[in-house]
Backbone:
């Protein structure tokens, strides 16, 4: 009796263990991809409601239009479009024969439903200018604009404007994008383990790829497994050891090493964002503009690019990537490294150098909190920033938060300085991060200013043409810079690395980013 | 007899599980700030708030709240994850198999190899072997798990390329984590087995067993091993909690999903419903572990069976 | 005689009789000598360390061991040797403080539980047994995650993680001693509980607790390193052995010395603590008394 | 039947036992007597061939059983003798049985091992033997665990184990020391009966001269790893010639006057590492002289008995 119980226990556990050893052996048709650090922490594949989306979203959902690297727009689910001369009406002709993954047809009604679904979400600004959507016929829609929106095509090409199946979207409610995500894209969502892994399988019916792809039919690869590897250096090791085939976003300090590897190829694309340090203008001592200005002068952008990024990428001097025309501001407003001047400004603000190298005002030490998210690259950059701030006599205490909750911390207004980055290649990002309507997050600087809001409104809603829009946004950008609300640090490049023994990747990459349109062209090396 | 003993042990678990559930329940109240805010995402609407209050009876007194909460737990309703926005039960169900696989294998590995090594070192009394064992046991019980994990990655994944660096795809990704957790476990089990066997060998009855004419092998297997197993079983049962929860460092280094990494992530994200559920599962595992250990011990030792409690 | 004098007297007796004997063996000398050296290094870190532990030199990042950076530099060009030396300070002081707190609290709880018994004892022991079966790293992680990262919360987290161990051990000693004749006699003579506890029980119970405390310092160092590795312990730029290893797996590839040397420091220290603790146990001949708990 | 000649035992460099000789025949009981630490138990372990178990080895002499020299017997063959031809009864019945196993199987083992019986036959035999040892309800006892039984009962089980294979020689190492006085008497009587009924040769190791007087035919008195006096019981008790033997006899409580026992013998038994030179007993000997500290005494034979004392002749002339 005694012995038999024991044996049963042992065999029992052995069976359990064996059963759990699921062997998802990687086949040649299964390509694994690691997200870049900035894409981590997406909680749902819901383009309408989510505030973070990753690359896999662009494979599940198609958009009406696509944007190429040269900023030109290409038809996708909209085969053509027309804008009235006053910019108050847009008519889109839709592709015929497109179906969602659930079999329902993609048509004018789907578009109408979809645009309406943005109401009340964080992403509503994308469709704010659209007053109403008319269904002209099965495959034609008309957007009746409340005001001209020169940025409409850009918005429509964004990942946040992937088109979901209306049936599924209505049915699943909050679960849409979590338990299932139904789009028209070249790949279907098979499983989504939050924070871990997303598995996409080929949509065999796909025939409606855009002209940014060589292959407009179903993708070559059967399955894409997207992994969230929180530590970018682990992701790097995975690529090097063959654990993953494609790494979106290689940390720049690993570029040199990867270049030396025979089987690793690197694609460098122009960056679409910057790393920067927002300053909370409501938290003393940063309510004093002199302190903010001094803080900006403490950061040695060139030094950072040279030393920690090995000269890859460029220093950031203002809030926008330099390829945008709105980045050409009055040079005197650009933020430049000048520690001597920073010292003078701080003296002027009443912060004098103390005995232990930290400035003081009366009994108070110039000690501030510096928030960042727990990704390798950001924590690293933050430590460099900390050391550079120490040079001007500012002690920064680093606090690291989980990347998906740090936004809540900003909303709690507990921060003073933070190191973060964004990915967006349009000047309306200024509205996103500095509008008084979004205090805490995204307006991490907590900046509310009548003149600022006026310039913002003008730029966002009163530009009838592209040229006007550029002028308006430049003015807004300059005003933002004059208030010293943040410190620009670095403009990274997009670095994509892949294992050339395993897969081939289209070269050159078309599109502004490496996403859906390029994934359908990826092939396995036989 | 053994059934009665098991039943008694189960009865004794009631006050323990009650106190542990109270502690876990209290977590959101012990945290700074309004407990309701701790259970809601920042910026939730007043309706969301009202709904939560109604669902958990948060407007009633603490005792009522506790019973509402524990009732939900018993039904497997762990609530909704704040950050991850899905039922906590789903998250637990998603992560638990990973923990069980890793924990189960590490458990098997450390118990079999540990007992084998312990037995060998107790039976074969060779000075060189003895020194080797002591060194191994010392290293196994002192080297930090995460460091060992890093070194194993450096050697086996980066240099030799035998096993994947991270993740949970297929059996190869289990080897290094199992080795890392198992290393400490093997050392512990080997030490306990060795000491227990040496102690058992010194018992008077062993002389008499030899005097009966039994061979050393028979004595070892039929008489000494059961004695040595008693403390080993206790230690192993205690290890169940350690292996499931203590695997958190290993899960972290190897980027593996599991209960431990879910808990860590939830703690980082202040996702307290998830934290509560994870802790409850771990506490359950710990209690089950001690229960299994006690029952196993009682099934081997008639003296324990007869103790009234 | 008050409590502190009491404690000092028994500690003194303990020190005289055992530390010397622990040093009597070869292993004892090597392990004990290393520990003394380490404590000295920690105390005199600012004079010993060749560089400023926080000074970054980005142009000399990830330099291999050599001259002038004997153990190389990390990803910020900081001197690894200086950081290991200053790290000893963090690791030792956090661990020792935590264990001291844990020991004091655990001895109080355990002595009270063992002496008074009854419902109080059962309540204390239920909680203690429960925390005891939870992994120490988990208890510490939960505590730090809730209170917030940093060295102070790490210290308290470690103290809490080991509280159960000291409580159990002290209680076991007290229960054992209470059964001995000379204590029974004192109780029968009508002595006050506080008198019996402080004058008779604690001095006799203290040796095993101190030895376990000594060994626990080793565990505390590992725990501190683990929390540091999770980024929850020392915050940058303060160096701690664990935090130094937290810069990511790839560091193993770019500059393995950044991860290997702090790890070696942890391992060697903990091994030395364990070896010396074992010698103490042997010198005091208390192995059997430790086994019961 | 069993004859030990000049036996020596060593542990590493120390030699706690040397020059021990005795012999015992069927139906005969020999007592080996001495204080604890005198090497009695080592003698028993040597005969059982169990010295390696405690790290010792035989350095000299012979142990002849049934015409075979056991000191040269390979382990495998020795195992057949142990429990088969030679049974052992150990000192402490409380710890002599495996606490995790039921009584039945522990006794059955012997018959299965040495008599080739199957499980049922062995059990039948076990119950039979338990019956002859006056154990009530043997079948029930077989199903019990050791901790459920009294010390006296356990010692009977141990005896049953020793007897199960019908041995020729029984070695009883202080079989009654750990028991109550009344139980002691029962066990001694039981052993005495067994010797007579089964024609056993019994080696009875004890520190109690009164037990020797009751049961033994011959006696060997040991001190500090040596035999100091041996001979037929009557001869030794009549005329003890070694001062140590005299002291042991003096310790026997006589009638109601129990004070003598409490006095004991002055001083303590030397430990293995500091065996005195010359006569080992001289530091405690009331009549020691200079020669005792330098020269080891030789046996002075008188009839069947012999005593190792420089003053053996004188000693017996003046009984203590």
Residues:
């Amino acid at each position: 009796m005694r012995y038999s119980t024991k044996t049963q226990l042992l065999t029992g556990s052995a069976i359990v263990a064996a059963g759990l050893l699921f062997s998802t052996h990687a086949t040649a048709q299964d390509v694994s991809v690691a997200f870049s650090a900035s894409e981590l922490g997406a909680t749902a594949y819901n383009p309408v409601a989510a505030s973070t989306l990753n690359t896999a979203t662009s494979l599940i959902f198609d958009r009406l239009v696509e944007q190429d690297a040269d900023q030109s727009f290409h038809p996708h689910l909209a085969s053509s479009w027309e804008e009235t001369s006053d910019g108050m009406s847009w008519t889109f002709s839709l592709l015929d024969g497109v179906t969602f993954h659930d079999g329902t047809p993609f048509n004018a009604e789907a578009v109408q439903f979809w645009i309406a679904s943005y109401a009340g979400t964080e992403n509503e600004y994308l469709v704010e200018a659209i007053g109403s959507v008319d269904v002209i016929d099965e495959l034609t829609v008309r957007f009746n604009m409340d005001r001209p929106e020169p940025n409409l095509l850009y918005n429509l090409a964004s990942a946040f404007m992937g088109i979901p199946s209306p049936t599924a979207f209505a049915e699943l409610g909050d679960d849409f994008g979590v338990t299932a995500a139904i789009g028209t894209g070249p790949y279907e969502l098979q499983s989504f383990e939050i924070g871990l892994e997303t598995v996409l399988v080929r949509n065999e019916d796909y025939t409606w790829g855009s002209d940014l792809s060589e292959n407009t039919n179903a993708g070559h690869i059967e399955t894409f497994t997207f992994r969230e590897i929180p530590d970018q250096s682990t992701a790097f090791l995975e690529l090097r050891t063959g654990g993953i085939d494609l790494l979106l976003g290689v940390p720049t300090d690993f570029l040199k090493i990867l270049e030396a590897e025979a089987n690793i190829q690197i694609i460098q694309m122009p960056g679409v964002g910057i790393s920067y340090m927002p300053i909370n203008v409501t938290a003393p001592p940063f309510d004093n503009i002199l302190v903010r200005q001094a803080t900006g002068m403490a950061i040695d952008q060139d030094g950072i690019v040279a030393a920690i990024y090995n000269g890859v990428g460029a220093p950031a001097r203002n809030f926008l990537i330099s390829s945008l025309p709105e980045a050409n501001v009055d040079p005197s407003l650009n933020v430049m490294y000048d520690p001597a001047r920073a010292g003078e400004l701080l003296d002027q603000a009443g912060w004098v150098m103390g005995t232990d190298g930290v400035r003081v005002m009366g009994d108070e030490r110039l000690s501030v909190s510096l928030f960042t998210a727990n990704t390798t690259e950001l924590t690293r950059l933050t430590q460099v920033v900390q050391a550079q701030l120490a040079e001007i006599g500012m002690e920064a205490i680093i606090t690291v938060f989980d990347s998906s909750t740090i936004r809540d911390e900003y909303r709690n207004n507990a921060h003073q300085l933070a190191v973060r980055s964004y990915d967006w290649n349009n000047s309306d990002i200024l509205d996103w991060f500095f509008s008084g309507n979004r205090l805490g997050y995204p307006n991490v600087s907590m900046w509310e200013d009548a003149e600022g809001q006026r310039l913002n409104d003008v730029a966002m809603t009163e530009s009838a043409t592209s040229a006007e829009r550029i002028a308006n946004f430049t003015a807004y950008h300059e005003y933002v810079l004059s208030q010293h609300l943040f410190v620009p640090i670095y403009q990274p490049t997009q670095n994509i690395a892949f294992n050339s023994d395993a897969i081939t990747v289209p070269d050159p990459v078309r599109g502004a980013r490496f996403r859906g349109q390029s994934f359908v062209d990826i092939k396995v090396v036989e | 007899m053994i059934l009665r003993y098991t039943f008694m042990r189960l009865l004794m678990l009631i006050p323990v599980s009650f106190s542990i559930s109270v502690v876990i329940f209290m977590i959101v109240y012990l945290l700074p700030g309004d407990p309701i805010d701790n259970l809601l995402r920042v910026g939730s609407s007043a309706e969301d708030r009202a709904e939560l209050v109604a669902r958990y009876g948060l407007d009633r007194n603490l005792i009522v709240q506790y019973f509402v909460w524990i009732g939900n737990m018993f039904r497997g309703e762990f609530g909704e994850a704040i950050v991850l926005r899905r039922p906590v039960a789903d998250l637990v169900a998603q992560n638990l198999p990973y923990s069980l696989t890793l924990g189960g294998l590490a458990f098997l590995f450390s118990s079999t190899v540990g007992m084998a090594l312990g037995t060998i070192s107790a039976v074969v009394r060779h000075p060189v072997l003895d020194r080797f064992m002591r060194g191994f046991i010392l290293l196994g019980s002192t080297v930090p798990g995460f460091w060992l994990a890093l070194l194993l990655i450096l050697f086996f994944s980066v240099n030799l390329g035998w096993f994947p660096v991270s993740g949970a795809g297929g059996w190869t990704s289990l080897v290094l984590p199992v080795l890392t957790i198992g290393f400490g476990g093997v050392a512990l089990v080997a030490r306990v087995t060795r000491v227990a066997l040496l102690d058992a060998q010194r018992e008077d009855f062993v002389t008499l067993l030899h005097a009966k004419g039994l061979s050393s092998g028979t004595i070892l297997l039929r008489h000494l091993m059961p004695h040595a197993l008693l403390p080993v079983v206790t230690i192993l049962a205690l290890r169940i909690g350690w292996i499931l929860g203590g695997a958190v460092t290993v899960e972290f280094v190897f980027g593996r999903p599991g209960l431990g990494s879910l808990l860590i992530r939830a703690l980082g994200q202040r996702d307290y419903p998830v934290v509560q559920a994870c802790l409850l599962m771990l506490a359950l595992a710990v209690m089950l572990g001690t229960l299994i250990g006690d029952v196993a011990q009682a099934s081997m030792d008639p003296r324990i069976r007869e103790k009234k409690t | 005689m008050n409590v502190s004098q009491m404690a000092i007297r028994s500690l003194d007796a303990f020190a005289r009789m055992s530390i010397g004997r622990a040093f009597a063996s070869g292993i004892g000398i090597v392990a004990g000598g290393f520990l003394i050296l380490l404590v000295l290094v920690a105390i005199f870190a600012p004079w010993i360390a060749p560089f400023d532990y926080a000074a970054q030199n980005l142009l000399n990042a990830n330099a291999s061991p050599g001259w002038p950076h004997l153990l190389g530099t990390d990803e910020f060009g900081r001197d690894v040797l200086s950081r290991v030396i200053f790290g000893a300070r963090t690791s030792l002081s956090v661990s020792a403080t935590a264990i001291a707190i844990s020991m004091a609290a655990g001895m109080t709880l355990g002595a009270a539980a063992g002496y008074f018994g009854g419902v109080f004892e059962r309540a204390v022991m239920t909680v203690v047994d429960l925390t005891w079966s939870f992994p120490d790293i988990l208890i510490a992680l939960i505590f730090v995650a809730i209170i917030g990262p940093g060295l102070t919360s790490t210290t308290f987290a470690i103290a809490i993680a080991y509280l159960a161990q000291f409580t159990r051990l002290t209680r076991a000693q007290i229960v054992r001693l209470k059964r001995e004749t000379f204590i029974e006699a004192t109780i029968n003579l009508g002595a006050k509980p506080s008198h019996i506890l402080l004058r008779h029980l604690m001095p006799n119970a203290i040796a095993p607790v101190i030895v376990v405390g000594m060994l626990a310092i080793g565990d505390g160092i590992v725990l501190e390193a683990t929390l540091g590795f999770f980024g929850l312990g020392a915050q940058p730029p303060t160096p701690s052995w664990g935090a130094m290893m937290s810069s990511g797996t790839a560091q193993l590839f770019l500059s393995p010395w950044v991860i290997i040397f702090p790890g070696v420091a942890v391992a060697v220290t903990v091994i030395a603590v364990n070896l010396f603790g074992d010698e103490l146990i042997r010198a005091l001949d208390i192995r059997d008394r430790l086994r019961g708990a | 039947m069993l004859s030990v000649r000049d036996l020596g035992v060593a542990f590493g460099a120390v030699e706690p036992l040397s020059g021990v000789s005795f012999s015992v025949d069927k139906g005969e009981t020999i007592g080996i007597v001495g204080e604890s630490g005198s090497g009695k138990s080592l003698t028993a372990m040597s005969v059982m061939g169990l010295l390696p178990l405690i790290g010792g080895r035989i350095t000299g002499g012979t142990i002849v059983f049934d015409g075979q020299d056991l000191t040269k017997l390979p382990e495998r063959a020795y195992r057949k003798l142990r429990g088969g031809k030679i049974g052992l009864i150990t000192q402490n019945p409380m710890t002599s049985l495996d606490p995790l196993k039921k009584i039945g199987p522990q006794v059955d083992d012997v018959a299965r091992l040495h008599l080739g019986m199957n499980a049922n036959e062995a059990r039948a035999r076990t119950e039979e033997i338990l019956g002859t040892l006056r154990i009530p309800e043997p079948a029930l006892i077989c199903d019990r665990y050791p901790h459920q039984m009294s010390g006296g009962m356990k010692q009977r089980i141990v005896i049953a184990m020793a007897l199960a294979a019908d041995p020729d020689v029984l070695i009883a190492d202080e079989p009654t020391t750990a028991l109550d006085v009344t139980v002691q008497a029962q066990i001694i009587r039981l052993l005495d009966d067994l010797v007579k009924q089964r024609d056993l040769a019994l080696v009875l190791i004890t520190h109690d001269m009164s037990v020797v007087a009751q049961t033994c035919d011959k006696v060997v008195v040991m001190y500090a790893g040596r035999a100091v006096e041996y001979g037929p019981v009557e001869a030794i008790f009549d005329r003890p010639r070694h001062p140590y033997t005299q002291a042991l006899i003096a310790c026997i409580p006589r009638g109601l006057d129990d004070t003598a026992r409490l006095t004991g013998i002055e001083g303590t038994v030397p430990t293995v590492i500091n065996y005195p030179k010359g006569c080992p007993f001289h530091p405690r000997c009331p009549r020691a002289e200079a020669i005792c500290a330098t020269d080891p005494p030789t046996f002075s034979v008188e009839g069947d008995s012999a005593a190792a004392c420089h003053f053996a002749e004188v000693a017996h002339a003046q009984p203590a």
